[in-house]
Amino acid sequence: MKTTVSRIAGHATDLFVDGAWRKPASGRYFASYDPSTGAPWYEAADGGEEDVDAAVNAATQALQDAAWNAITPTRRGGLMHRLAALIDDNKEDLAQMETRDNGKIIGETRAQTGYLPDYFNYFAGMADKIHGEVLPINKTGMLNFTMREPVGVVGVIVPWNSPLSILATALAPCLAVGNTVVAKPSEHTSASALALAELCMEAGFPAGVVNVVSGYGESAGHALSRHPGVAKIAFTGGTDTGRKIASNAAANLTPCTLELGGKSPHVIFDDADLERAVNGVVAGIFAAAGQTCVAGSRCFVHESIYDRMVDRVAARARAIRIGRPEDPNTQLGPLALQSQLEKVQRYVQYGLDQGATLAAGGGRPPIKGNGWYFQPTVFSAARNDMKIARDEIFGPVVCMISFRDEADLIAQANDSVYGLAAGVWTRDIDRALRFARAVDAGTVWVNTYRSASFVSPAGGFKWSGYGKHNGFEAVREYTRVKSVVIDHSGLGRDAFVIQLK
Ligand code: NAD
Fold first, then answer.
1. Within 10 Å of residue 135's Cβ, how many Cβ atoms?
2. Suppose 341 and one of 72, 372, 423, 478 were both cysteines; which one would form an S-S bond, judging by CB atoms 3.0 to 4.6 Å apart?
3. CA gap 249, 245 in Å, rounded
4. Are residues 435 and 444 in contact, defined by beta-carbon separation less than 8 angstroms?
5. Cβ of 61: how many Cβ atoms within 10 Å?
6. What whole-number distance in Å separates Cα of residue 347 and Cα of residue 398?
7. What is the pTM of this model?
8. Which residues contact 363 (CB under 8 A, 6 or more apart)?
9. How much distance in Å is there from the Cα of 481 to the middle of ligand 1?
10. What contacts 252, CB < 8 A, 6 or more positions away?
11. pLDDT one digit per residue (tens) for the chain, 501 residues
12. Nearest residue CA, atom 35 of ligand 1?
């Protein structure tokens, strides 16, 4: 079976374990829905504990197999370059698949799948440049060096909002350093992970190096996070789920990387280039219909320009072209899930109940059919203590909040349980740097927003999680350091005394 849009539409997909398609032990399949119509478009295998066990065993076996562990790092990098080329060849189909599965507009999914080859090429280039060190040990006649080794089997649990890109942030560094992977995609978006696993096989990765078990979080995800054969969990998703996963993993002392939710402050000072700032704010919240972890959902505006900025952001929000996600002219597609649409509706009501004012949007757009569309929504007169400013809505809703001065801004910006990202628009570099130092955020953008790069370490603080992806930080996440001490002095030393000299 080849996992392309045309092949899976109307069919059922299986699990991908040990280089082959496998039926789920449960024998069950569940529907995956097209958010632009609300109708099911394929069925995914309902994997569970037995399937996860089979996948972890296959991944463990692959680690022990010379076909993977004796390959030179340069050749491992070569496999990844080949995978990058295959992704490039298939990028249009992968983009169509993502758009169909989670409703993200085609312009965005094309940008994401177009970026993936470079993502894999970057980590491919690292494969033979990862090394330990020789340390100047404080003992005579001894040599101390470190080795940086793969951690082993990595369990990767992925959300639905950017399924392929988020899987890649773990998969690429994991493969570069020689790990094996069991991936559990979101139950809402299984297709692209299966397609990627297939491309890995086509690229020549040995069977068992990349496995995909689709299924629900409470069954397949739960089993993966507590499996004793898993050496590391890479999780991206909601904060509550992150807590459950970390506590499951703790039973085996399995370390985790947790990329969780956010409520990111996006700041406009009165000295900013206001045209660029408005663009940044609009794109920062309405791209992907606000369903990005780094969405700039709390927009802080200096009080002297507050009313003007609300008007401008609201006018831009009203002008956004809402439509079917596969139409290249569409700027805002549907939300990915019906439950997500209902959540956004609930939060708009909370905002109104607590006294915020709708400057734009707040309802369903007049689009025919049963798609899960919602208007780009701008709340003015919002305060940082309102529920709409405290909770992650994960939808196209921005809270416009005014601030007096830098001290007031920092106090409000940091008054959040989250600490994922922040943005600031100002022409004053000193002010920008003061903000960057003071704000609790894993990434700070100055006069730009959502500029991601595979070289740039990303990850949150506080309830936004811990650990990093991208750059060499990702290599650290997926390797372990072993210290080797050799006595080459020829001296007889007292076996019962720790050698202090
Ligand atoms: P989610 O937490 O509901 O699900 C994420 C994944 O976890 C899915 O694969 C799901 O099946 C699995 N899961 C659910 N319950 C589980 C359990 N008990 N044990 C093991 N696995 C379980 O998140 P979502 O709704 O798919 O995604 C939205 C969330 O992801 C938002 O909060 C968003 O901020 C966050 N996110 C964070 C980042 C980041 O880099 N920080 C990036 C994208 C999304």
1. 12
2. 372
3. 6
4. yes
5. 16
6. 11
7. 0.96
8. 348, 374, 375
9. 29
10. 226, 227, 228, 230
11. 467 888 899 999 999 999 999 999 999 999 999 999 999 999 999 999 999 999 999 999 999 999 999 999 999 999 999 999 999 999 999 999 999 999 999 999 999 999 999 999 999 999 999 999 999 999 999 999 999 999 999 999 999 999 999 999 999 999 999 999 999 999 999 999 999 999 999 999 999 999 999 999 999 999 999 999 999 999 999 999 999 999 999 999 999 999 999 999 999 999 999 999 999 999 999 999 999 999 999 999 999 999 999 999 999 999 999 999 999 999 999 999 999 999 999 999 999 999 999 999 999 999 888 899 999 999 999 999 999 999 999 999 999 999 999 999 999 999 999 999 999 999 999 999 999 999 999 999 999 999 999 999 999 999 999 999 999 999 999 999 999 999 999 888 777 777 776
12. 237
- 487 in helix, strand or coil? strand
| Residue (of 22, 99, 82, 76) closest to 54 by Cα position | 22
The phi, psi pair for 243, rounded to 5°, reads: -60, -45
Q: Which of 52, 104, 161 has most ligand 1 atoms within 8 Å of its beta carbon, as the pocket-test mutant?
A: 161
> Which residue reads 């001490």 in tokens?
485
* Contact between residue 106 and residue 326 where contact means Cβ atoms under 8 Å apart: yes
Cα of 241 to ligand 1 centre, how many Å? 6
**Chain-centroid distance, C-alpha 88:** 21
